[in-house]
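Most newcomers find our protein records easier to grasp once they have seen one. To make this concrete, we reproduce a full record directly below:

===
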Amino acid sequence: MEVRDQEIVALVGSNGAGKTTLLSVISGIVPARSGKIMFDGRDITHAPSDEIVNLGIIHVPQGRRLFPGLTVKENLMQGAFSRRDRAEVNRSYDMVMHLFPALEKKLKDPAGKLSGGQQQMVAIGRGLMAKPKLLMIDELSLGLAPLIVDNIIEAAEQINREQGTSLLIVEQDVEVSLSHAHRGYVLETGHMTRSDAADKLLHDDYIRSAYLGL
């Protein structure tokens, strides 16, 4: 699998296919049993997680994984804990507020008190505070209302378009993910079975039958 510079890639598949495991391996959370992971021409297959983060790979995990007792602002700033470019950190913070204006009135609230959609915004915002080159989002739409999903997807596209950030989006909703990606991969029980331009996959008879019920 490949994610190119300034590209949105959708990784789709059913429950248990291995999508979350793959992201965890890329992040260094789960050790790779075989194969190789390359990033910017560098082999990071066995690199520690903190080094992977410092290289610019940021993982927004399934289930948000916020610090529920910390405020929204404190959670956001956790994403910038390793950065020393304070002026740029402030710009990143302003960008997050621009992308997710709904958070501005919640900055002093504990993150654990937010709605699911607001928590997802905080999780993505925290990832953006690290100034990623590659942002991986696991199950972007899980448990969220369609309108909230649309807003978050729109923000993701804006991140890609305006910041040049590459995105790898893991998503069970095949139509949502492929409709907003440049390319896509289908993962089935640990094996990549299909890859193509996202619009071609969206109209692939097998995909439409297996994942869209058409």
Remarks:
- DSSP finds nine helices and eight strands in the chain.
